[in-house]
Amino acid sequence: MTTYEHEWGTKILRCFLPIILLGADDLSIRMSMQFDEVTKMNEVFQEKLQVYDITIIGGGPSGLFGAFYAGMRQMSTKIIDAQPQLGGQLIALYPEKFIYDMPGFPKIRASELVQQMVEQAMQFNPTVCLNERVIGLERLDEKLFKLTTDKNEHYTKTVLICAGIGAFTPRRLGKPEVERFEGKGVFYTVTDINAFEGKRVLIVGGGDSAVDWALTLEPIAQKVTLIHRRDQFRAHEHSVEQLMHSSVEVHLFHELETLNGNEFPHEAVIYHNKTGEKKVIAVDAVILALGFATDIGQMKNWGLEMDGNHIKVDQRMMTNIPGVFAAGDIATYIGKVKLIATGVAEAATAVNQAKVFIDPTARLQPAFSSTVGIPSQV
Ligand SMILES: Cc1cc2nc3c(=O)[nH]c(=O)nc-3n(C[C@H](O)[C@H](O)[C@H](O)COP(=O)(O)OP(=O)(O)OC[C@H]3O[C@@H](n4cnc5c(N)ncnc54)[C@H](O)[C@@H]3O)c2cc1C
Question: Residue 14 is part of which domain span?
Answer without folding.
Answer: 3-49
